[in-house]
């Protein structure tokens, strides 16, 4: 009798539903880790924590025009009220767009761009700074089109999207660094919550019709933070970063194993 292959740790067998198994990277509940590995809730938790913990999300690849359109609509919504401009997502073999869903509603999205002979979007404003990293033998990936609906459990959604983008960049494609363009008003958030550092000073970005700065993060820093803080909820006293809202190291390796297997 043939043996049934064992799935990566933390992932249930969802083969009975092709959409679940073939299209969903991971399902999780906010504010905990994987949906399948929810921690027991303490009686001391307040009503708000209990309400939030029941929110269920799925992170999927935007591999179809419909999914890219849905992600583009969220980006347009979140950018427009801040006065930013945005263009629609299109298929590109060097870009991986992740979309977080709450039921069938898009709750967040981010696009991971992998450096290639075509370069990166950030080269338009910051080619000199990125070329300096390339000259050091660094392999650069960029994060673009980041948007999270504030009506969702934004910390958990943002942490999950960022963590899976890291898994693709670090474990699957062997990249070494992240760069991201952000509005100067948001620099403190990215420094405090994720550990980014300033790489390129303020310039006007014509793509969004707003000022931008370039931030940089060594992926080995992310690896270290996940190893010590990933999934450590509630966060340790004084810890303000997003890393406790991401997956544990054990869950991360299970997700990476699944992605590497196709």
Structural summary, described in words:
The protein has one domain: Gcn5-related N-acetyltransferase (GNAT) (Aminopeptidase), CATH 3.40.630.30. It is of the alpha+beta class and 262 residues long. Helix 5 (154-172) crosses helix 8 (249-260). The protein contains eight helices and eight strands, in the order H-E-H-E-H-E-E-H-E-H-E-H-E-E-H-H. Strands 1-2-3-4-5-6-8-7 form an eight-stranded mixed sheet, with helices on both faces. A hairpin with a 4-residue loop joins strand 7 and strand 8. Residues 1-22 and 35-53 have low confidence and may be disordered.
Could you provide a short overview of the structure?
By secondary structure, the chain is of the alpha+beta class. It has helices spanning 18-23, 47-53, 65-80, 123-135, 154-172, 187-194, 219-229, 249-260; strands at residues 24-30, 55-61, 95-102, 105-114, 140-148, 177-182, 197-205, 210-218.
Structural class: alpha+beta
CATH homologous superfamily (4th level) name: Gcn5-related N-acetyltransferase (GNAT)
Q: Main β-sheet, in a few words?
A: 8 strands, mixed
Q: What spatial form do the alpha-carbon principal axes imply? A: globular
Strand content: 15-25%
CATH architecture: 3-Layer(aba) Sandwich
**Total number of helical segments?**
8
How many DSSP-defined strands?
8
| Head-to-tail CA distance between termini | 25 Å
Q: What number of domains?
A: 1
CATH class, named Alpha Beta
Enumerate the strands of the largest sheet in spatial order, edge to edge or round the barrel: 1-2-3-4-5-6-8-7
Estimated radius of gyration: 18 Å
Helix content: 25-40%
Mean pLDDT, all residues? 81
